[in-house]
Amino acid sequence: MDAESKLELIKRNTHEIITEAELKQLLEQKKHPRGYIGLATTGKIHIGYFIPMIKVGDFLKAGFKFTILLADIHAHLDDQKAPFELLDYRVEYYKEIISAMISALGIDTKNLEFKRGIDFELDKRYTLDMYRLAALNTFDRCKRAAAGVVRFGENPKLSGFIYPILQALDEQYMDMDVQYGGIDQRKILVFARENLPKLGYKARVEVMTPMLPGLQGSKMSASEEKSKIDLLDSADIVKSKIQSAHCPIAVEDNGVLAFLKYVIFVHKGDNKQELTIRRAEKFGGNVDYDNYKKLEKDYLDKKLHPMDLKNAVSEEVNKLLEPIRHKMKSKEDLIKKAFP
User: Fold this and answer.
1) Which CATH number is 3-209's, of 3.40.50.620, 3.40.50.150, 3.80.10.10, 3.30.930.10?
2) pLDDT recorded at residue 219
3) Per-residue pLDDT reduced to its tens digit, 163-177
4) Superfamily name and number for 225-338
5) CB of 137 within 8 A of CB of 178?
6) Is the pLDDT at 224 greater than 70, yes or no?
């Protein structure tokens, strides 16, 4: 795969890249660039994580050596969403279930590794740089950077203001070329680009993908039960949640359409498969789609009923989740310890 093909693969379904020119240059100059995504080990993982896991696969196909950072200290700094005594269990749960997701997607893991934040974020030099960046930034600047990610509340804890400083330093101390995250991370990623050069370090390329809308509109969130489908939800629960999902004849805030666009069609396209919408003959019979755009047009033209989409998505989600449920069946004790 040449540099242009690698660039197109990484660009697909992204919301923003800062900057595309730098990414292109990186791909031309390095055979195996280094990239990572940081995942704060807070709540249980839901189907919205399929978007970043598919993108992790894109990075690996494009020749990257890729790291999934299990950001345990970050998880505690974010208003103690992960109590300190549960961090070990949360990290183990995240590693197990993400590995199951990656396996379900058929991603080659030869150049993939997991890393834990606590293993390097307590380093003496790292800590000194944390103090240096703290001295260079105001409370207001740090809060603006973290506002889309960190829960501050009426009486915000000091830890939330430190969060973006650590995320910036992670790029340097893991020796990364690219950081990847959701578009909700944009202000933190820009904060990193602004601040690392102040310490004499290079700014990294930042790649962002859209967030999956929740089942009731807005962002899918681990803290809002009705908005999400957990990876270990039963087939019946998955079907029930999708049947009751908000699915307007529109693209905006439509989690059903978004999952089709960013997950189902990408996964099927990579495996050279079509999506079959199953319908009774009186409603037009089955129809096959090999690309999302055609399906979206038919839906907006009211040639497909919302229930047609919901039935198809229920079936495809359960296909993706079944091997994950199977792999996690022996991990019930771990899950109870991670989320007592």
Assistant:
1) 3.40.50.620
2) 61
3) 999 999 999 999 999
4) Tyrosyl-Transfer RNA Synthetase (1.10.240.10)
5) no
6) no
Q: pLDDT, tens digit, for every residue of 23-51?
A: 999 999 999 999 999 999 999 999 999 99
Handedness of CA 221, 222, 223, 224 (dihedral sign): positive
181, 40 in Cβ contact below 8 A? no
pLDDT at position 89, please? 97
Q: What is the mean pLDDT of residues 204-231?
A: 80
Greatest Cα pair distance, the chain, in angstroms, is 70
Question: In the chain, which segments carry CATH 1.10.240.10?
Answer: 225-338
How, if at all, do strands 178-182 and 205-209 pair?
A: parallel
Amino acid in position 95: K
Q: What is the sign, positive or negative, of the torsion defined by CA atoms of 165, 98, 219, 85? A: negative
Query: What residues contact residue 254 under an 8 Å CB cut-off, 6+ apart?
Result: 213, 246, 247, 248
68 close to 142: Cβ distance less than 8 angstroms: no
Of the candidates 310, 35, 58, the residue with the CA atom closest to the CA atom of residue 180: 35
